[in-house]
Amino acid sequence: MDILDEIYDAVIDGKTDIVISKIKEALENNIQPDIIMKEGLISGLDEVGRLYEEGKFFVPEMLIAARTTQAALKDLRPHLVKQGVKPAGKIAIGTIQGDLHDIGKSIVAMMFESSGFEVVDLGVDVQPEKFISAINDGAQIIALSALLTTTMTNIRTTIESIEKAKLRDRVIIMVGGAPVTEEFSIEVGADGFAQDAPSAVRKARELMGAKNIST
Ligand code: B1M
């Protein structure tokens, strides 16, 4: 089995020690850092996302694989920087104003980070102004999480504030959380909806490719 396949398998199994030692071996064998990231780490994590969507993996397995990938990326990052590799995009994520649930939002944030995005986690109970500041600071995507039917309406208020600040054209807006649906996302004028962390990553990549965002 080649080294990249071993990294891929170890990501799926959440075996951090093996991933880190195999990355070292891959670098010693002159495999480029971006290839290690894409074909070993990210494709392993994509497979974890697929298994989760098929109901074969659950949240704990997904969290373990995301943590493994994050630890490995920490080691790989200096090599990626040296190679001139840029993040897949800059995302600011937060739980909407009035809402204190942060478990799902943090899983989505971790999955974005493990998949090569630069992530700014704005926390919980995030006021629209904070999302506006994040856009002004270069976020290309903002991801809004809501867990309560009473707070999901604040997604609309936040999008309206972004429109009022004349920043709507500069940013991709993604929404998610247990009560949020595709229909609701269209109704409030978001660019995309994702029902879980793996599909959020897939949707972000798709939207980054489709919308030309200038920062
Ligand atoms: Co609360 N709570 N809670 N709670 N809580 C719910 C959400 C509730 C469904 C429970 C119930 O009644 N059955 C209910 C909401 C009912 C409704 O609105 N229809 C509820 C309520 C009512 C409340 C309070 C109002 C209770 C009270 O005080 N009377 C209160 C509100 C506080 C507030 O926010 N202002 C409250 C408080 C709390 C705790 C603080 C005790 C705690 C939160 C702790 C924390 O987060 N640190 C809590 C918890 C734990 C829950 C439940 C049990 C679990 C939520 C969770 O973490 N799920 C929840 C019931 C349930 O869901 N079974 C419940 C696991 C997590 C991995 O899933 O968050 O859905 P989830 O995230 C998923 C997807 O939704 C998606 O990806 C994630 C990963 O796959 N996703 C995104 C999430 N954000 C995304 C953003 C994206 C994309 C995808 O951006 C692009």
CATH names the topology of the largest domain as Rossmann fold
Number of domains: 2
N-to-C series of helices and strands: HHHHEHEHEHEHEH
Instruction: Give a count of the beta strands, DSSP E runs of length 2 or more.
Output: 5
The helix fraction, in percent, is 55-70%
- Using the 3D structure, state the CATH architecture of the largest domain: 3-Layer(aba) Sandwich
Q: How would you characterize this protein structure?
A:
This protein has nine helices and five strands. The chain is globular, with a radius of gyration of 18 Å. It has helices at about 5-15, 15-30, 35-55, 60-85, 105-115, 130-135, 155-165, 180-185, 195-210; strands at about 90-95, 120-125, 140-145, 170-175, 190-195. The mean pLDDT is about 95. It has two domains: about 5-85, Methyltransferase, Methionine Synthase (B12-binding Domains), Chain A, domain 1; about 90-210, Cobalamin-binding domain (Rossmann fold, 3-Layer(aba) Sandwich). The chain has a five-stranded parallel sheet, with helices on both faces. By secondary structure, the chain is an alpha/beta fold. α5 (about 105-115) links the parallel β1 (about 90-95) and β2 (about 120-125). It binds CO-5-methoxybenzimidazolylcobamide (B1M). CO-5-methoxybenzimidazolylcobamide binds near residues 104, 108 and 149.
List keywords for this structure.
2 domains; Methyltransferase, Methionine Synthase (B12-binding Domains), Chain A, domain 1; 215 residues; globular; 5 strands; 9 helices; alpha/beta
